[in-house]
Amino acid sequence: MNAIFVGEKRSGKTTLAFHLALETNGGIVVFDPKKEFRGWPATVSDVAGLEKAIRQKHRVVVWRPPSNIEIVDSWSVLADWILEKHDLALADGWDRAGFHFTVLIDEAYNLQSHARIDQKLLRILSQCRPEVLNVFQTFQSVKNVNSDSRSRVSDWYLFTITLPTDLDRLEEFAMPEVIGQVRTLPEHEYVHFLNEKGTVSSEIVKNSDSWYESLDYQPKEKENAIMPDERNGQDERDEFPKDGITVLDRGGLDEAMQKYNRRKADDPKTKYRQRKTDNQRDDKKSGERSGGGSKAIVFGRKSA
Questions:
Q1: Closest CA to 187 of 15, 3, 57
Q2: Residue/partner pairs of 264-267 with CB below 8 Å, 24 or more apart
Q3: Which has the least CB within 10 A, 29, 53, 181, 203?
Q4: Structural domain 2-210, CATH architecture
Q5: Could you tell me where in the chain the CATH 3.40.50.300 domains are found?
Q6: Where residue 98 falls among pLDDT bands split at 50, 70, 90?
Q7: In angstroms, rounded to a whole number, what is the distance separating the alpha carbons of residues 10 and 112?
Q8: DSSP letter assigned to residue 185
Q9: Contact (CB, 8 A) for 53 and 96
Q10: CA neighbor of 140 nearest in space, from 32, 36, 10
Q11: What confidence tens digit (pLDDT) does each residue in 6-36 have?
C-alpha cells in the first residue's frame, strides 16, 4: 500500500507510520533526513552499508543522508537501489509468494511540493507494485503533498489539521466529514481516510497505546521463560519448589523420587533415561519399606 501521514511536530505521524511498517512483517528501510531514528545498529548512508545490513539480517535499516551531501542527492542513490530491488523481487515472484518490503520516507516534503516532485519518487509510486513494495510518506502539511503523489496513495492518516490552507487542500479530495473530523481531533488521535478503487471511508482511531512505537532503538531482552521440555541449563534441583519438598517418612521420600524420575524419563530432551527394571526395583523396594518415623525429610531445596 502507498500511504501518507500528516501531522504537526510531535503529533505521532512518524511513530504511527513506523508501527504500521512493523505490522507488515517485511523488511523496512527508513529514509531519515531529520535523524529521528536514534541508536539503530543498522544505520547506513550508502548502498554498501545497506547491503551489509541486509546480509546481517537486520529487519530495520535506517538510511541517514550524510551532512556533506544534499538530501535529494542522497535519496537519489537510495531510490535507485529501491527500484532495482523491486524489479529483482518481481522477477523472483514476491508478488505471488506474498513477500514484500516497506520504504518509510520521513519528512517527504524534501522530495516534493505542491508544484514539483522528485522524478525517482514519482517512478517508485507509479511503477512499483504495492504487493511487493509499501511506500509510507510523512508530512507536516497537506499543502506540501504533490498532486501526482496524492493520486497514487490509497491510505491517509491525518492528525489534527487546523490551518485554512491545509483544510482547503484536503477538501479537494477528501469527504466533507473528514474535514470536520480532523479539525477537532484531540492530541494523538487520527483519522484513517481510505480512498482506493472507488472505496471511500473514514475512521477515527483514539487509542494511541495500540500503535505507539519508540523511534529509538530498543534492544530485545532475552527470553527468560522456560518452555516445556527446555531446561536451558537450569539446575536440576529447580524441578522442586524453592523451599524443597517435605515428607514425613521414607515411604513418602521414595514416592516423591519415583515421581521425579518418571518426569525425567518422559522428558524427550533429557540425557537421563530410566530403565523399566529400575522402576520395577523401586516399586519392589517401596513395598518392602514401611513408614517408620515422623522426622521430616526435606530435599530439593536450593542452597543459600
A1: 15
A2: 267/229
A3: 203
A4: 3-Layer(aba) Sandwich (3.40)
A5: 2-210
A6: confident
A7: 21
A8: P
A9: no
A10: 10
A11: 998 888 999 999 999 999 878 999 999 999 9
